[in-house]
């Protein structure tokens, strides 16, 4: 009996030792690197070591038997390669996995999916066969995190064993019971069933390009995150039976990004796709931030088939130009087009002139025409720039060849003075703008001088800024049917100078223009005048509003402080209330239906929590790096509002948030940093973590 007890104790000791060694291995294994934008960053390290959050899905091989049986080997691991149990028994978090099988027919460029489903519309009664995922297949475990999946769907009888086939996989790992986010991933594997080398692929637009705007492309619940997987289902074979719209990728993507500019939408017909559980996705208010004619915003040259967009087809071209009837020739210069065979006869990739029938020519944006002489601004210095003086600004304007342009040759030319650089609040509206078209120049116009009529305030201290903006109207292709007058501007320049002899201190950088242009390509506003953030903030300062433009019946005025305005514009339809700014000439600018493109993990709503999409590194954090001014907010719950609260209340527009900010503001300032500082429990990063 004693021997048996000792044996049991010994076996128990070995079991405990094995568990301990395994635990040490898990704890000591290098874990994934989480950033401050991840919820995992703030979780208990012991929990992280136990759960090992993250999901990496990898298709390692695939085969199709002669009878059409499709098999795929996959690995499900954490981000460091440790295997995961798909059932969530031996490792935390069950993993939902879906498979797609598709092929590219010889001589074709798009996929046909083997895995399909039949859907009948409760609205129209129409039935459609759609590409989708496999259902009812079987799993076999190979090893830790390694599996073989056998599809229930079989390849078609007599399938082409020499054609490119692709297995797509997507899924999620649910960690909600640990108060951690759901992890998503997808993957794809190209192969030729007869074992030969893969030659034919579909690689038109890369996922990384989409993510310039979308942050993380995520659709259908968030699990489909790559274009390579999307194109396996979004094929010509798939139609929405409720609306009759195809969801073929080139057609659907073009239509979505055209949105409000679609001829059909302008004519009153919304562009909608009805999906799972009859959910209605209406893209009729989408406004593409880069201009729909800028094809290279998506077709940026990174993909191996990037030039596919230079080959005309009825489907791709008709997606944007959806008022063209190719069968009758309506809106197609009265020429019916019964196939794609003759499209490239007229629509070659590029012609000799812009604005012709070629692909590049037809999509020329006038303000970027190569025929324009161009505008290049230079700011050389400021004289007489002390407090109480009228500053004299030296500048020059040249065309793209270096030839001087006289100020009088500009349609508009303005110099903007603002200060101090800590916050532009020195003047009544924070800035002064003066017409510089009558500036004096030397004999060859290589240097010009303008004296401001407005003096720098006599009590001014620190550094001030001067910016230059302007545009010209230029006729291109004169004497031809292409003749047109184009209004375009030059790239703004901003110069900082000291008004009291102290060291020059530039205005802080919070948002980088390059970040704006990831989506906007070339941000240009106010009649082609303003295109650099350094210029924008001169006028969009804490004291400025639209009072001078807003009708009396629409008062109180709306603040146009940069942080408040940009946050509100990009929140758009998520604000839950109209957001309207009145501009030049009394123009009414309603941003209430703006749809921010960076999508949430569930792929359903706009997500602005990734502050780095716009902000320069860390500039959204508290405490603020400088002593900033309060912001006039006439339409807010209280005014003026503290600089930190101004940023927060521009997205969090409810009375509860405003009350919270007010209660934490005194005559001494804001106490936001106590709870929302970079190392606090409710830091900006932590409350925006995903």
Strand and helix map with partners:
Elements: H1 2-28, H2 45-51, E1 56-64, E2 69-77, E3 95-104, E4 112-113, E5 116-120, E6 127-131, E7 138-143, E8 146-154, E9 164-173, E10 183-191, H3 207-214, H4 227-233, H5 249-258, H6 263-266, E11 272-274, E12 280-282, H7 314-320, H8 343-346, H9 359-362, E13 376-383, E14 392-398, E15 412-418, E16 431-435, E17 440-441, E18 448-451, E19 463-476, E20 484-489, E21 493-498, H10 513-520, H11 533-539, H12 562-571, E22 580-582, E23 588-590, H13 643-649, H14 655-663, E24 665-666, E25 669-670, H15 672-676, H16 684-687
Antiparallel strand pairs: 1-2, 2-8, 3-4, 3-9, 5-6, 7-8, 9-10, 11-12, 13-14, 14-18, 15-16, 15-19, 17-18, 19-20, 19-21, 22-23, 24-25
Helix pairs in contact: 5-7
What does this structure look like?
The chain is of the alpha+beta class. It folds into three domains: 45-238, no CATH class; 376-539, Macroglobulin (MG2) domain (Immunoglobulin-like, Sandwich); 558-687, no CATH class. 19% of the residues lie in helices and 22% in strands. It contains 16 helices and 25 strands. The strands form eight sheets. Strands 15, 16, 19, 20 and 21 form a five-stranded antiparallel β-sheet that branches. Strands 1-2-8-7 form a four-stranded antiparallel β-sheet, with no helix packed on it. Helix 5 packs parallel to helix 7. The chain is globular, with a radius of gyration of 30 Å. The model is unreliable at 1-30 and 600-606 (pLDDT under 50).
């Amino acid at each position: 009996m004693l021997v048996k007890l000792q044996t049991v104790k010994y076996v128990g000791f070995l079991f405990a030792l094995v568990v301990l060694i395994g635990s040490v291995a898990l704890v000591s294994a290098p874990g994934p690197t989480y950033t401050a934008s991840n919820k995992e960053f703030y979780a208990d390290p012991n929990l992280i070591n136990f759960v090992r959050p993250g999901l990496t899905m990898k298709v390692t091989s695939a085969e199709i038997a002669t009878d059409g049986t499709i098999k795929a080997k996959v690995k499900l691991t954490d981000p460091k390669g440790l295997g995961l149990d798909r059932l969530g028994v031996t490792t935390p978090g069950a993993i939902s996995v879906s498979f797609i099988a598709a092929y590219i027919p010889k001589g074709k460029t798009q996929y046909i999916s083997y895995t399909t489903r039949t859907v009948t519309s409760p609205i129209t009664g129409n039935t459609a066969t759609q590409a989708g995922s496999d259902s009812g297949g079987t799993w076999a475990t190979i090893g830790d995190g390694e599996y073989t999946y056998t599809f229930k769907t079989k390849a078609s009888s007599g399938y082409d064993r020499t054609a490119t086939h692709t297995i797509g996989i997507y899924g999620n790992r649910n960690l909600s019971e640990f108060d951690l986010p759901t992890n998503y991933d997808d993957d794809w594997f190209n192969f030729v069933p007869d074992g030969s080398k893969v030659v034919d692929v579909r690689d038109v637009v890369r996922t990384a390009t989409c993510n310039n705007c979308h942050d993380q492309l995520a659709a259908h619940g968030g699990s489909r995150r790559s274009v390579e997987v999307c194109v396996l289902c979004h094929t010509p074979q798939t139609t929405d039976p409720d609306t009759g719209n195809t969801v073929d990728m080139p057609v659907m993507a073009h239509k979505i990004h055209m949105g409000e500019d679609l001829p059909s939408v302008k004519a009153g017909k919304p562009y909608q796709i009805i999906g799972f559980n009859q959910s209605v996705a209406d893209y009729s208010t989408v406004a593409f931030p880069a201009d729909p004619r800028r094809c290279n915003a998506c077709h940026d040259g990174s993909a191996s088939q990037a030039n596919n967009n230079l080959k005309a087809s009825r489907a791709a071209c008709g997606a944007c130009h959806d008022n063209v009837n190719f069968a009758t020739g309506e809106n197609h210069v009265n020429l019916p087009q019964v196939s794609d065979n003759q499209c490239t006869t007229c629509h070659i990739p590029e012609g000799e002139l812009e604005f012709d029938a070629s692909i590049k020519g037809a999509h020329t944006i006038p303000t970027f025409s190569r025929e324009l002489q161009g505008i290049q601004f230079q700011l050389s210095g400021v004289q007489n720039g002390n407090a109480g003086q009228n500053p004299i600004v030296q500048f020059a304007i040249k065309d793209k060849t270096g030839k001087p342009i006289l100020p009088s040759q500009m349609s508009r030319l303005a110099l903007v003075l603002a200060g101090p650089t800590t916050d532009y609040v020195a003047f009544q509206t924070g800035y002064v703008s003066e017409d510089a078209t009558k500036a004096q120049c030397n004999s060859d116009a290589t240097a010009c001088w303008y004296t401001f009529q407005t003096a720098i305030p006599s009590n001014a201290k620190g550094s001030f800024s001067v910016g230059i903006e302007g545009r010209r109207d230029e006729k291109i292709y004169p004497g031809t049917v292409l003749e047109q007058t184009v209004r375009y501007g030059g790239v703004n320049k901003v110069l900082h100078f000291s008004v009291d002899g102290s060291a020059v201190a530039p205005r802080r950088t919070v948002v980088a223009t390059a970040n704006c242009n990831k989506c906007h390509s070339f941000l240009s506003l106010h009649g082609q005048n303003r295109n650099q953030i350094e210029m924008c903030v001169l006028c969009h300062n804490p004291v400025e509003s639209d009072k001078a433009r807003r009708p009396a019946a629409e008062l109180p005025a709306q603040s146009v402080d940069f942080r408040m305005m940009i946050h509100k514009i990009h929140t758009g339809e998520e604000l839950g209330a109209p957001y309207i700014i009145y501009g030049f000439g009394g123009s009414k600018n309603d941003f209430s239906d703006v749809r921010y493109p960076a999508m949430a993990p569930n792929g359903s709503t706009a997500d602005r929590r990734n502050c780095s999409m716009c902000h320069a590194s860390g500039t959204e954090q508290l405490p603020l790096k400088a002593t900033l001014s309060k912001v006039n907010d006439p339409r807010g719950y209280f005014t003026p509002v503290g600089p930190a609260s101004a940023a927060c209340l521009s997205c969090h527009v409810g009375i509860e948030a405003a009350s919270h900010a007010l209660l934490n503001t005194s005559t001494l300032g804001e106490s936001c940093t106590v709870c929302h500082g970079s190392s606090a429990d409710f830091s900006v990063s932590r409350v925006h973590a995903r």
